């Protein structure tokens, strides 16, 4: 007996079409597969976020570790090296000025750049042929800043004296420190430095505007040197970038120096003074700073650098017989104080930024882990 439900029209057996059932089953599996795929995709995305947050935490932890493992105590040798660096730099400039009458500031700077270029090449040993275009451009810019900064500074020293020229030049790193800090106290530092400039220069008809302008040009070049040096440090490992810049700068001064020395034949004493300027003002500070940074915290190094105008004024008075009055010393103290405060503020701002980044990264990673 055949069941009625299996009968079709006219009493014949009905043919069941399974294609609709198969389509429904396939659609159901497709929906399930889509849901599963979306879930997997979302999990992969969240895993990627967790990985990125972990990397951020690692980077921040490395930075904090570097800051905390830096020399916590000031090593006496580090302090001695910093003092030696400052005194050598300003003593070299003072000794080099003895050759101004014979070969002029340009001739002295040329010899100085030659000495510095040779020593930097020997110490840094840059692989110049391996440099890429992205590495060469900041290196060339650094070399240009190096060259213009020194010739403008030495020309300013010839006109307005060592103490005033170096103090005005120091406005370059001060400006970089102030622009890099977004705290309200930086306004006070800028006003303090401006007051120091007014006290130092005391604008009047008899002021040497050209000498002051040359010192300010040196300050501008020093600011550019600092900013470019950061780029070079990111793109070129070690001191190879600075060494290459010093070598290029020395190479640029070869035709300039030859022309000056031919036009003004130097005496042995003049060449000796120019060579001493190269050693004391370039080589000794470079090596002393490298060794000092291994023994003292970076912020303390910056504070010690702020005392360079005091070194310059003292050496100018003792070696060159430059007379500085009470107002001159007041102006120098104002500029030095402004730079010291700016360095301290910059250090606190970097520490605060590191802490905020660490908290944000930890919160991001923790939230994602709680979700999954």
From TrEMBL:
Protein name (database record): EamA domain-containing protein
Pfam families, per database record: EamA
Cell location: Membrane
Membrane protein topology class: Multi-pass membrane protein
Major location (coarse): membrane
UniProt keywords, alphabetically: Membrane, Transmembrane, Transmembrane helix
Transmembrane segments: 106-124, 136-154, 160-179, 186-203, 209-228, 240-263, 269-288, 300-321, 327-346
PANTHER family per record: EAMA DOMAIN-CONTAINING PROTEIN, INNER MEMBRANE TRANSPORTER
Entry similarity comment: Belongs to the EamA transporter family.
Domain EamA: 211-338
